[in-house]
């Protein structure tokens, strides 16, 4: 289980070396938003939020199948996935990876990951989703609760400063 989570955390850990001030400020903003929006889910023991230097790791606890029902998509029932989506910054600045390390059978873990990915796609976040990667080794001391993990990584592009007028589109950047 822990090794499969490593695939999920690898991009986070590699990008954590960045010392960009804008990245740090945006990561803090993302984590503040996640803490505020997900407070009811965290208090109820349904989720955890772990700040990272380049984003956040949200773990959805329990064995919910996260079904993509009409009520869930229409926000008629409380859905922890919606809290994650509502907490995000500009989607062009984030990359999202989903992995399940719960004790559920493999087919149920795959179904949960597929359902969460579909929820994100239905919410207009399809381009932010990362494909699965091979599992690397986690660093010593890394502790992640078992559950469905959602890694939200900031991708702050660097651009040369342009002077004057330009017809090129402005690229988003962390501030």
List the helices and strands and how they pair.
Elements: H1 2-15, H2 21-37, H3 39-43, E1 47-52, E2 55-60, H4 70-73, H5 80-87, E3 94-100, H6 106-122, E4 148-154
Antiparallel strand pairs: 1-2, 2-4, 3-4
Helix pairs in contact: 2-5
Task: From the structure above, extract its key features.
alpha+beta; 4-stranded antiparallel sheet; 175 residues; 60s Ribosomal Protein L30, Chain: A
CATH topology: 60s Ribosomal Protein L30, Chain: A
Portion in beta strands: 5-15%
The radius of gyration is: 17 Å
Secondary-structure element pattern, one letter each:
HHHEEHHEHE
Q: Number of DSSP helices?
A: 6
Count of individual domains: 1
What is the C-level CATH assignment?
A: Alpha Beta
Helix content: 25-40%
Cα(first) to Cα(last) distance is 36 Å
- Structural class based on helices, strands and sheet pairing: alpha+beta
Characterization of the model:
The chain has 6 helices and 4 strands. It has 175 residues and is of the alpha+beta class. It has one domain: 60s Ribosomal Protein L30, Chain: A, CATH 3.30.1330. It has a 4-stranded antiparallel β-sheet with strand order 1-2-4-3. Strand 1 and strand 2 form a beta hairpin. Helix 2 runs antiparallel to helix 5. The radius of gyration is 17 Å and the shape is globular. The N and C termini lie far apart (36 Å). About 8% of the residues have low confidence.
